[in-house]
Amino acid sequence: MDFKLLVRFQDVHLRYGSGPDVLHQVNLTLAPGSFHFMVGPSGAGKSSLLRLMYLAHRPSSGRLSIFGRDVSQQDRKELTMLRRRIGIIFQDFRLLDHLTALENVALPLTITGQSLDKVRRNVSELLSWVGLADYLDAKPPTLSGGQQQRVAIARAVIARPSLLLADEPTGNLDDKIAERLLFLFEELNKRGTTIVVASHNEGLVNRFNHPVFKIVNGEVRLIRNQQNSPVTPTAENM
Amino acid sequence: MFGNKNDVPLDRDASSRFLPWLIAMMVYLATMSLIIAITMNKLANRWDQGLSSSLTIQIPAEPSAEKRRTLEKQLKTFITKIENLDNISRVEQLNDTELNKLMEPWLGKDILLHDLPIPYLISIELDSSSAKTIDEIKLILAQDIPNASVDDHQRWLGNLLGLTKIIQIIALLVVILVGGAAALMVILVTRMGLAIHRQVVELFHHMGAHDSYIASRFQFHALKLSIVGGLSGLLLAGITVASFSSLLGQANSAILPTLTFTSGEWGLLLLMPLSASLIAMMTARLTVLRSLALMP
Ligand SMILES: Nc1ncnc2c1ncn2[C@@H]1O[C@H](COP(=O)(O)OP(=O)(O)OP(=O)(O)O)[C@@H](O)[C@H]1O
Ligand SMILES: [Mg+2]
């Protein structure tokens, strides 16, 4: 990789329409292979920050670089290619009810024009890995919440993204299943995927040894470092 | 290269049911208008030929017997001259009996013709319609019998031809308007589809689908529906024409047109469903691309 930072926010502001700043003066960086949590109360701007990262929104001002590229300098085709390197797990999964689990997971590949037949084997292997070998042809409405979530995760990682963004992936799961899910993310992280998990469940977050960003009043702060030690505020991480 | 073809479930939309019908009606309208235009064109050509290849010359009657004799001599010379022109199939001076027949409706049967000053009428028919021949005849006439008047049916024909032109223009206008209406309809249907499947479209966009990939889903959907609709419309038009032409065949009238088409005209008719499908496809594509352009 010809860049040291996978994601870089420089004085980024975000507001919707003519409203107030939802995110204010954001400066943060993600190194390749890192694993971060993002916490903050409801409405703090976690989803907004993730949407900036998966290029669903443009910063109102400031500079945002993904994979070493200034987002504002990229044309439409280049942005599309950047998006293909990002896996997203939505809080509400956003599975397509008319497609089978296998077809859903294959989407990131088929939307690039690959035929379903060509990717079928890879996809079923991944579905087996998340424990859904018997549900390849099941439609999402017939799956349990936890099973749907695993389909959503498989879909997010099938194209081997460099960056995996998870928005409240543990939202409506009980703590035990949520914990298992996070172990799965750690597994992916060990294989080189950079991960950001947004969650309002700070208790769960505290059980894992990963740096944590907290959004308060539109400002993003690193509140905890890798060694599970609270960060003493410095100019660097403010 | 087409990914998973049913990833946007457009087939289940209501549009899938009503768009083919709308397209069928529009193609039917357009095809029928085009048939009217073609037929009017043929009719105009036929009338043009039939009427401008004949003319009637009228010479006012002479009351004095002596002058009448000179005039009749002049007429004979004139007729000979005309007969010697090229492109003349028949020159005939209408005789008293024929004149009587012509006058009967106005004057009644019992009036004796030679009691009244009746004009002389000469009818000329040409082999083929030719402005040149008609001009030659008029020139000779002006020299030999200056007080004669010529009726070459041009004014009457002119009005009639003008009418067929207007009908043709209106028919073509209908074709264009129907095309525009079809495009508007497809825009509406596509926007509806985009609204219904907004989540899917956004998802694909975030996953890194090219705009053209997303557009292709809508564009082939519109193409499929409009081919079905277009061909049905053409078939319906074909049935209409077939039943009309069998009716006209029974009437067997010289003035009415025949509903047969050359291969070029068939091609033009086939162009209606084809262009409807193309319009639908391109409109759907552009509509989707325009709405995707609003996404960052
Ligand atoms: N599309 C939008 N248009 C206008 N305002 C928005 C939009 N999306 C989010 N907001 C506002 O931005 C703020 C941050 O919202 P966001 O969804 O990022 O919060 P969040 O931290 O993800 O909250 P939660 O934990 O409830 O998911 C909120 O005040 C919200 O009302
Ligand atoms: Mg949120």
UniProtKB/TrEMBL annotation, chain A:
Database matches in SMART domains: AAA
InterPro entries documented for this protein: AAA+_ATPase (IPR003593), ABC_transporter-like_ATP-bd (IPR003439), ABC_transporter-like_CS (IPR017871), ABC_transpr_LolD-like (IPR015854), Cell_div_FtsE (IPR005286), MacB-like_ATP-bd (IPR017911), P-loop_NTPase (IPR027417)
PROSITE patterns to which the protein is assigned, alphabetical: ABC_TRANSPORTER_1, ABC_TRANSPORTER_2
MF GO annotations: ATP binding; ATP hydrolysis activity; transmembrane transporter activity
Topology term for the membrane: Peripheral membrane protein
Superkingdom of the organism of origin: Bacteria
UniProt GO BP: cell division
Coiled coil: none
A cellular component term, taken from the record's GO annotations: plasma membrane
Keyword Metal-binding assigned: no
Pfam families cross-referenced by the UniProt entry: ABC_tran
Subcellular location: Cell inner membrane; Cell membrane
SUPFAM superfamilies named in the record: P-loop containing nucleoside triphosphate hydrolases
Location of the ABC transporter domain: 7-235
Keywords: ATP-binding, Cell cycle, Cell division, Cell membrane, Membrane, Nucleotide-binding, Transport
Similarity section: Belongs to the ABC transporter superfamily.
Cited function: Part of the ABC transporter FtsEX involved in cellular division. Important for assembly or stability of the septal ring.
Subunit-structure text: Homodimer. Forms a membrane-associated complex with FtsX.
Protein name as annotated: Cell division ATP-binding protein FtsE
Organism from which the protein derives: Kiloniella spongiae
Gene this protein is translated from: ftsE
TrEMBL record, chain B:
GO CC field: cell division site; membrane
The keyword Membrane is annotated on this UniProt entry: yes
Top-level taxonomic group: Bacteria
GO biological process: cell division
Keywords: Membrane, Transmembrane, Transmembrane helix
PANTHER family, A to Z: CELL DIVISION PROTEIN FTSX (PTHR47755)
Descriptive protein name: Cell division protein
Segments traversing the membrane: 21-40, 166-189, 225-248, 268-288
